[in-house]
From TrEMBL:
Provenance organism: Paracoccus maritimus
Lineage of the organism: Bacteria, Pseudomonadati, Pseudomonadota, Alphaproteobacteria, Rhodobacterales
Residues given in the record as substrate binding sites: T54, D128, E189, K219, D223
Enzyme Commission no: 3.13.2.1
InterPro entries the UniProt entry points to: Adenosylhomocyst_ase-like_sf, Adenosylhomocysteinase-like, Ado_hCys_hydrolase_NAD-bd, NAD(P)-bd_dom_sf, S-Ado-L-homoCys_hydrolase_CS
Designated name of the protein: Adenosylhomocysteinase
Encoding gene (name): ahcY
Length: 463
């Protein structure tokens, strides 16, 4: 029996060719294979992975297995799978459950599938956005009697999640609790998932240690920023083919993703405006040369609107109703609730093509909505390029090794990798792009209070 659910196994050869190319752009992951391939530090680890099933993720998966792990995988978004990458992974014998355009019901059943190892419970989670962690922890609480937690769903997502929890509870009483207790640790990829982990820990609801991969400098200051700088405009172009130069684009949020997104649009020739709630980020945006406005100021005049906040209800119905005819609206933050898509459900929708919809407002004006408000760089394009994902995923693998081999030394809580490892990740990416480092002399190192080998900065340095 095949232990995978994918679009088409015939796509495996194409996927494999793209994986081969990606490997040449992912020096960090390849270096970890060379360094740890023989020792197999992940032997015995059964990793339940929930992260966009792309070509780059396939290289991550094959690095984890090269280091000895058993892996089962699903995507963390219904639109982000690259079907040929999933096919290549399935063909290699790794169970994968991911189809671009899967339904929400399928999404949660695939999340359930990543925990169903034949030879025991999953003992590690590799998460992006926190859904795999949420599934297990919420299920275990319901199992412990907190049934009201899944009584009243407030969104389609929750409805599908709650239905899947009920299904598993009925099929395997006690499973969630046993599965939760088997987890040694979780490594979390993104800002939104990290927010969820800190929140769980504050409430005393995080039963195992977690490594916050996002806040490695070599993750958030690279993937979130330089990754979005390349993939945001890529997504808008593939979706719409619209002329970007000269258009007025609004970027909501000027954190790491916002900085990359604003730079992406500016690089394409758009005139970019920014909205922010944080005075520090607003000042940064202004001093980077962007006009800082409120959405109310520009809703009726801008051409392109992009949310990057990780917050909810940022672009609301009243904003969309004020927009010009054919304004483009999209989100690059983790969840779709940044845009009030649910409030558009009773409007007239015309599907243009996969992940592109035209929605008519009461005024007669239409908006173009990308990926139904889900992260458009992965829904409408192929996400970030391999090189920057190599830095992110090298942190992921180091986090998995740390938690698997030394998890017992950690109390439940949220940790970040030590700076020496962060610097190591960066170092592994220098040769590929011909970067030559200057060597500190002992005297110079003493003078600035570091060692010649690093770490070169204190923990509070902000880059
Ligand atoms: P961040 O915390 O650095 O930036 C978010 C910014 O939005 C903050 O500066 C905050 O002040 C601002 N903000 C919050 N509410 C706002 C509002 N109502 N109006 C305007 N600004 C507001 O977070 P980061 O790392 O930039 O991540 C943002 C989101 O993007 C998260 O959901 C994260 O998970 C996701 N992400 C997506 C990626 C992708 O490839 N699509 C890659 C990396 C992260």
């Amino acid at each position: 029996m095949t232990d995978y659910i994918i679009r088409d196994i015939e796509l495996a050869q194409y996927g494999r060719k793209e994986l081969d190319i990606a490997e040449t752009e992912m020096p960090g992951l390849m270096a970890l294979r060379a360094e740890y391939g023989a020792a197999k530090p992940l032997a015995g680890a059964r990793i339940a992975g929930s992260l966009h099933m792309t070509v780059q993720t396939a290289v991550l998966i094959e690095t984890l297995t090269a280091l000895g792990a058993e892996v089962r995988w699903a995507s963390c978004n219904i639109y982000s799978t690259q079907d040929h990458a999933a096919a290549a992974i399935a063909a290699s014998g790794v169970p994968v459950f991911a189809i671009k355009g899967e339904t929400l019901e399928e999404y949660w059943s695939y999340t359930d599938q990543i925990f169903q190892f034949a030879d025991g419970d999953a003992n590690m989670i590799l998460d992006d956005g926190g859904d795999a962690t949420l599934y297990i922890l919420l299920g275990a609480r319901v199992e412990a009697g907190e049934t009201d937690l899944i009584a009243t769903p407030i969104s389609e997502e929750e409805e599908a999640l709650f239905a899947q929890i009920r299904k598993r509870l009925a099929a395997s009483p006690g499973w969630f609790t046993a599965q939760r207790d088997a987890i040694k640790g979780v490594s979390e990829e993104t800002t939104t998932g990290v927010h969820r982990l800190y929140d769980l820990h504050r409430k005393g609801l995080l039963p195992f240690p977690a490594i916050n991969v996002n806040d490695s400098v070599t993750k958030s200051k690279f993937d979130n920023k330089y990754g979005c700088k390349e993939s945001l405009v890529d997504g808008i172009r593939r979706a719409t083919d619209v002329m970007m130069a000269g258009k007025v684009a609004v970027v909501c949020g000027y954190g790491d993703v916002g900085k990359g997104s604003a730079a992406s649009l500016r690089g394409a020739g758009a005139r970019v405006k920014v909205t922010e709630v944080d005075p520090i980020c607003a000042l940064q945006a202004a001093m980077d040369g962007f006009e800082v406005v409120t959405l109310e100021d520009v809703a009726d005049s801008a051409d392109i609107f992009i949310t990057t906040t990780g917050n909810k209800d940022v672009i609301r119905l009243e904003h969309m109703r004020a927009m010009k005819d054919m304004a483009i609206v999209g989100n690059i933050g983790h969840f779709d609730n940044e845009i009030q898509v649910a409030a558009l459900k009773n409007h007239k929708w015309t599907n243009v093509k996969d992940q592109v919809d035209m929605i008519q407002m009461p005024s007669g004006n239409r908006i173009i909505l990308l990926s139904q408000g889900r992260l458009l760089n992965l829904g409408n394009a192929t996400g970030h390029p391999s090189f920057v994902m190599s830095a992110s995923f090298t942190n992921q693998v180091l986090a998995q090794i740390e938690l698997w081999t030394k998890g017992d030394e950690y109390q439940p809580g949220v940790y970040i990798l030590p700076k020496a490892l962060d610097e190591k990740v960066a170092r592994l990416h220098l040769d590929k792009i011909g970067v030559r480092l200057t060597q500190l002399s002992r005297e110079q190192a003493d003078y600035i209070g570091v060692t010649p080998e690093g770490p070169f900065k204190s923990d509070h340095y902000r880059y």
